User: Which sequence fits this backbone?
């Protein structure tokens, strides 16, 4: 396993005027499990293919540890990619599929047989090794595709949407399997997904991409608590945001003025607050009124949609109170220490 | 009206033509091959014609030549078709023109191609003249013999030229439906370009082009006009031999001509059955 460093990496597809991936600077540590997260078309799969060597960057460099691999052919790079639709060779048995990479390296037949046997055992595929891919379920095919990659002991494992073709219950199982195998083998792993929940559950760190650029990198927590932009907050399901102007510890916006504890510089800002941080009732500071448009009972809690100056905010509160607030005007408070202030850059 | 019955009524005109012309002709030929020819006073039903044919000195060389030409023409066509399909699926400048030229041979009749080859590569043909003009040869006899030759090179040339796009377009369709994914997968698993072609692309293309190749093999094996125009008179391909026996002034040779035709027909029929089984198996596997 190796660390992976991307320096100013850009790629434009032939015939396309604007780049699919632009100026990516990102380092993945040895043995880390990192997610490239973003909506479809954001350049995450392109980035994965650049690391695999299947695409050549228009500019920029790629390093595995201290070795520059930008010009190394995919078959020599030892970065193995597992595709979304598994791509098991249909005319080979599972055993032959798993041994493919080792055969291409012209290893000794006994060595191949032994290593294939070991990985089949790890992936619980021993009983299926004689079957053709078409005779396997989706989950089994996914395990076989993973086995085919892992048997090569790659420096970097690249997974393209590894869970998106699976049923919900299989997804949990496969997620646990990927996690436990990644932990036990310690292989540096980069996986691409469009599902933020998947990234949060699986990754050590997340690199969020929009429009071919990495927007924010970090542990999953920061995307909820300290999103770098309104769009990121929204991608992680939080639409409770409003534009305003910050001066000292005060933000003025269309619903009024409130106190914040942020040290962000004075100027135009976006203010974000998480649905569970908003409190109903007047708590003395930062209190406002809003119409509750909808109240949804979720079992353990209630979810409310409130109208804040034309925008719909979400509030999550305990279901204990039992009061029906739908259609009523209520007061709510924004605790200053829970408010996240994002300075508006440039524009 | 019952749909089955109405179907038969609607198909009847076509069926009658097929039955009378094809099955009728086949039955007539078959009975003649067994020695039943009232017109010359022969009423026997025996295998004499088949035995005479197989024992005749010209049969084995003809059979070998026919197999040689069919196998070589088919193999060359397949190899060139796959190679061209691999090139044509890529993007390049002028691809539209190249694709058009590539498909062009499909529209040209075999007969025209045969005449063209004759005019082009015979010892008195265009290429020989050009070679003479530029001083490569000083005498027409120095130009290599490519038509009416021992190995049927002229015949093979015609078939290869005609059939490359036939198989090539099938291979191209298979390649395009596959996309690049399998190749990319093979590459990241450590296969170099040649290994990717050998172990991944080829096994994926072959089921698609095998049925087409069998059709071409059967076609070359039984076709007549090209070897008749461009082949050596001895040994000739089986179909030419059959035609000669058929047009022999001695009507006694007629049963042998029919026996030959029946043998060719049976061989082609076996190939067609094989082709059908193969394509069904491929369909089932991919389904």
Assistant:
């Amino acid at each position: 396993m190796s660390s992976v460093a991307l320096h100013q990496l850009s790629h434009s597809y032939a015939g396309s005027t604007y780049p699919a991936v632009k100026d990516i600077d990102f380092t993945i540590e040895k043995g880390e499990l990192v997610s490239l997260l973003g909506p479809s078309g954001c350049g995450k799969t392109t980035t994965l293919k650049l690391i695999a060597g299947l695409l050549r960057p228009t500019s920029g460099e790629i390093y595995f540890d201290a070795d520059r691999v930008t010009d190394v052919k995919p078959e020599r790079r030892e970065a193995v990619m597992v595709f979304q639709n598994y791509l098991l060779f249909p005319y080979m048995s599972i055993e032959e599929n798993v041994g493919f990479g080792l055969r291409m390296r012209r290893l000794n037949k006994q060595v191949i047989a032994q290593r294939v046997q070991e990985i089949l055992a790890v992936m619980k595929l021993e009983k299926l090794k004689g079957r053709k891919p078409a005779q396997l379920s989706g989950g089994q095919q996914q395990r076989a595709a993973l086995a085919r990659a892992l048997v090569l002991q790659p420096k970097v494992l690249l997974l393209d949407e590894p869970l998106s073709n699976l049923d919900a219950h299989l997804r949990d199982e496969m997620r646990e399997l990927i996690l436990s195998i990644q932990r036990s083998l310690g292989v540096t792993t980069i996986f691409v997904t469009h599902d933020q929940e998947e990234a949060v559950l699986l990754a050590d760190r997340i690199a969020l991409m929009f429009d071919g650029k990495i927007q924010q990198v970090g542990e999953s927590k920061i995307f909820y608590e300290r999103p770098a932009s309104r769009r990121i907050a929204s991608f992680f399901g939080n639409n409770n945001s409003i534009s305003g102007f910050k001066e000292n510890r005060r933000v003025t916006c269309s619903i009024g003025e409130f106190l914040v504890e942020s040290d962000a510089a004075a100027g135009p800002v976006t203010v974000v607050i998480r649905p569970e941080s908003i409190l109903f009732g007047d708590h003395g500071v930062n209190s406002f009124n809003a119409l509750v448009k909808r109240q949804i009972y979720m079992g353990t809690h209630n979810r409310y949609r409130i109208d804040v100056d034309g925008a719909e905010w979400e509030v999550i509160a305990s279901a204990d109170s039992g009061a029906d607030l739908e259609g009523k005007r209520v007061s709510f408070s924004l605790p200053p220490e829970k408010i996240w202030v994002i300075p508006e850059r440039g524009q | 009206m019952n749909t089955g019955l109405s179907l038969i009524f609607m198909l009847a005109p076509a069926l009658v033509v097929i039955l009378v012309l094809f099955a009728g002709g086949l039955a007539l030929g078959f009975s003649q091959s067994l020695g039943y020819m009232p017109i010359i006073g022969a009423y026997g039903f025996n295998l004499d014609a088949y035995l005479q044919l197989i024992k005749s000195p010209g049969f084995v060389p003809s059979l070998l030549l026919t197999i040689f030409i069919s196998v070589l023409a088919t193999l060359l066509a397949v190899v060139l078709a796959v190679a061209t399909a691999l090139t044509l699926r890529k993007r390049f400048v002028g691809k539209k023109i190249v694709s058009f030229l590539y498909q062009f041979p499909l529209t040209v009749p075999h007969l025209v191609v045969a005449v063209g080859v004759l005019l082009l590569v015979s010892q008195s043909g265009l290429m020989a003249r050009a070679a003479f003009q530029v001083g490569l040869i000083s005498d027409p006899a120095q130009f290599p013999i490519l038509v009416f030759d021992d190995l049927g090179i002229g015949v093979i040339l015609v078939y290869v030229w005609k059939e490359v796009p036939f198989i090539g377009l099938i291979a191209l369709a298979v390649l395009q439906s596959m996309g690049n994914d399998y190749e990319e997968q093979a590459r990241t698993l450590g296969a170099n370009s040649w290994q990717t072609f050998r172990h991944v692309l080829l096994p994926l293309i072959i089921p698609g082009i095998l049925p087409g190749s069998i059709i071409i093999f059967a076609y070359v094996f039984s076709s007549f006009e090209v070897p008749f125009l461009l082949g050596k008179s001895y040994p000739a391909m089986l179909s030419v031999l059959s035609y000669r026996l058929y047009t022999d002034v001695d009507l006694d040779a007629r049963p042998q001509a029919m026996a030959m035709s029946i043998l060719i027909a049976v061989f082609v029929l076996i190939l067609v059955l094989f082709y059908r089984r193969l394509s069904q198996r491929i369909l089932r596997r991919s389904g």
Notes: Residues 254-286 of chain B form the longest helix (33 residues). The radius of gyration of chain B is 24 Å.
